[in-house]
Design goal:
Order of helices and strands: EHHEHEHEHEHEH
Helix content: 25-40%
CATH topology: Rossmann fold
CATH superfamily: Isochorismatase-like
Distance between the termini: 11 Å
Number of helices: 7
Structural class: alpha/beta
Radius of gyration: 16 Å
CATH architecture: 3-Layer(aba) Sandwich
Number of strands: 6
Shape: globular
CATH class: Alpha Beta
Length: 191
């Protein structure tokens, strides 16, 4: 069982937005319930909760006519103020939760996340998100380069491709962010 120091830790819930949940994790409604329990337990011990979302301004000025986000722009998806870009109500921000908006895949890219973490004195991250091959992979790699210590909550991550999900968790991400379940995390912070 890992040791989690609440004074050094922040919990990142990444891309749990209505449209993304529907596209990547619609078959596992229990995942939202587990995530809500983790967030409630996190808040109860005073660990900051940071919601990371991907959203674009009207007109999509952040998106070029090539690359990863062109299809989102063409379809008018994940635009600020739309229901699809909103955080899923089961895991919506409460109290002092912080919402960080990014304009790219990873939580650090194009956001003020690092400033918030440094301002709160947090150097250990507990992360989870959708999709494993997107925001989770990119954020863990970036955070490792910034020398954060991490844990990844495996049963709160999802990807459309189960094999990619499995390989990333078991062979790639676990080396930088030791894996734990939502129940293990709750037990670790309840001590």
């Amino acid at each position: 069982m890992p040791t989690i120091d609440p004074k050094r830790t922040a919990v990142l819930i990444m891309d749990y937005q209505n449209e993304i949940v529907a596209n990547f994790a619609s078959g596992d409604t229990s995942m939202l319930d587990r995530a809500a329990k983790v967030l409630d337990a996190t808040r109860a011990v005073g660990i900051p909760v940071i919601h990371v979302v991907v959203r674009f301004r009207p007109g999509y000025p952040e998106v070029s006519d090539r690359g990863t986000f062109k299809a989102l722009k063409d379809a008018g998806r994940l635009k600020e103020g739309t229901d699809g870009a909103a955080i899923h109500p089961k895991v919506a921000p409460k109290g002092d939760d912080v919402v960080v908006t990014k304009r790219r895949v990873g939580a650090f890219s194009g956001s003020d996340l690092e400033y918030i973490l440094r301002g709160k004195g947090r150097d250990h991250l507990v992360l989870f998100g959708i999709a494993t091959g997107g925001v989770v992979l990119t954020t863990v790699r970036w955070a490792a380069d910034l020398d954060y210590s991490m844990n990844l909550i495996r049963d709160l991550c999802a990807d459309r491709d189960e094999e990619v999900h499995r390989v990333l968790l078991e062979k790639v991400l676990g080396r930088m962010a030791p894996l734990m379940t939502s129940d293990e995390f709750i037990k670790a912070i309840a001590k």
